[in-house]
Specification:
The protein has one domain. The chain is built from ten helices and 23 strands. Helices cover 29% and strands 25% of the residues. The chain has an eight-stranded mixed β-sheet with strand order 7-5-4-2-9-13-14-16. With 480 residues, the protein is of the alpha/beta class. The radius of gyration is 22 Å and the shape is globular.
């Protein structure tokens, strides 16, 4: 591991570029960032939605799961954006109906957002919902997939630009609800020697359980919180809601189908509950994935996706009716790029992978042995360290953290308990993709989400380093 593992680069970014100011003025953007954050002006907010439904034929495959091309559209996919400005700071949240959005697509979208609005990447969270029936944006190189990835970048920038144009005086409130009946820990304890992993080993003590069936020995707690950030027009009309929840997805789909999962149904149902489905500009409901690396939801396919989305919308609607709204609040964001080590394979593991691909491997096999052999050789080409973009936002007394990993519930619960801002919620798979984030004690148990691959490659101590850094950033935005 490199000696600079864990190195942190942190700074507050203020807009000083004349060129950026000119670009922002051309789009009507307000550029007063860098004023005294303790004297906020009247809050402005705007929201927007753009369509990112893929054409048929775009791949739904991931690094491990090979789902093939899209064949049928069950529900449309969208990018949803929310922008807040208090005259001192401007921040934006974007949530996309994508499984993963890789760095190249994120960076392209960020460049376009900056060109069109003047808003720098440090002030934007661009996250994926992690529905498994949608594309992994940026993974593949075929022409049809690349065209779609370019579309997603453009639509992210378009959503933010429209949200900026929609900025109007607004009120904001925050709170937290709870939906404990859906999450369950998808990793269960097993007896050593009882299962063969993809590498031909029988040392794992944890295994991915069934879809809520027989998982009576969970390895970790779950997180039932529903985080809520709500925006209203000054006359009380609903404008937008950013919520977060922690179940991976709702399984039971048909191969080749495209659906936004419970995230899309949440947005549609909340708009109806808010009487905002016919508003102008339309009400925007956003459901981000909070921390579901080891958490799944109930099976049941499309009907259960709709049921979960509707139940979450009802809970968020309840919270929105009870919280207090403000027209002047502090806004702040801090970020850091944490340099972390990569678990690259050693010579023995590389030799194993080559023997599997050559057909000379004679050991025990798992259904994913060939997949993990390919993953091993891909991981061998990774750099020894990699930057991990982390953010902490403050909106009044609400804290929001973002990270590009699939975080375990236990990590989020620890951050929330120690956060100086209350309530606090996390948005995962934001601003890139860095795979699963198992705590060190979960690495010792093994099992899927810890097996080294392009879906799980950060150093074993990545989780405590990321957790400490997010808490440091929360403290920083609290006391700016």
């Amino acid at each position: 591991m490199s000696s600079n593992s864990g190195r942190v680069f942190t700074r507050r970014i203020f807009i000083k570029s004349t060129a950026m100011q000119a670009a922002a003025m051309a789009t009507g953007a307000h550029l007063a960032w860098g004023k005294d954050a303790k004297t906020p002006g009247r809050l402005l907010a705007g929201a927007a939605t753009t369509d990112i439904t893929p054409p048929l034929g775009v791949s739904l495959s991931g690094p491990i799961s090979k789902r093939g091309p899209s064949k049928r559209i069950i529900t449309p996919l969208n990018t949803r954006a929310l922008v807040l400005d208090n005259g001192c700071e401007r921040i934006a949240f974007v949530v996309c109906d994508s499984t993963i959005i890789y760095d190249d697509v994120i960076k392209k979208a960020q460049r376009m957002v900056r060109e069109q609005t003047g808003l720098p990447p440090e002030r934007i969270s661009i996250s994926a919902t992690h529905s498994h029936t949608v594309p992994r944006v940026g993974l593949l190189k075929s022409e049809v997939d690349q065209r779609y990835y370019d579309l997603v970048s453009r639509k992210i920038a378009e959503a933010v630009s429209i949200a900026v144009r929609n900025l109007v005086p607004a009120k904001v409130g925050w709170g937290a609800g709870s939906k404990p009946e859906y999450p369950y820990c998808r990793r269960k304890l097993i007896e050593p020697g009882s299962r063969i992993n993809p590498f031909g080993e029988t040392t794992d003590r944890a295994w991915m359980g069934g879809w809520g069936q027989g998982n009576d020995r969970p390895t970790s707690p779950v997180d039932p919180q529903v985080g809520v950030l709500s925006l209203r027009h000054t006359d009380g009309r609903p404008m937008a809601v950013l919520a977060s929840y922690s179940i991976h997805y709702v399984p039971g789909d048909t191969r080749g189908d495209v659906t936004a999962d419970y995230f899309g149904h949440f947005a549609d149902r909340l708009a109806v509950l808010m009487n905002g489905d016919k508003a102008d500009p339309p009400f925007v409901g956003m459901m981000a994935n909070s921390n579901s690396g080891d958490t799944n939801g109930p099976g049941g396919g499309y009907k259960m996706q709709e049921k979960v989305g509707a139940a979450l919308a009802e809970e968020v609607f309840r919270v929105c009716r009870e919280i207090e709204y403000h027209d002047r609040v502090l806004l702040a964001v801090c970020h850091s790029d944490l340099e972390l080590g990569v678990r690259r394979p050693d010579k023995k593991r590389i030799a194993w992978a080559k023997s599997v691909n050559a057909g000379t491997y004679k050991g025990k096999k798992h259904g994913w042995t060939t997949v993990y052999a390919d993953q091993t050789l891909q991981l061998a080409e990774f750099p020894p360290t990699i930057p991990v973009r982390l953010q902490a936002f403050r909106i009044g007394e609400l804290g929001i953290t973002t990270n590009p990993c699939e975080m375990y519930a236990s990590t989020a619960l620890k951050i929330r308990a120690a956060s100086p801002l209350k309530p606090c919620f996390n948005i995962e798979l934001a601003n890139g993709y860095r795979g699963y984030l198992p705590p060190p004690e979960q690495h010792k148990l093994g099992g899927y989400t810890t097996w080294p691959a392009t879906s799980s490659y950060l150093e074993i101590d990545a989780e405590p380093k990321i957790r400490r850094e997010l808490l440091r950033l929360l403290a920083q935005v609290k006391y700016l």
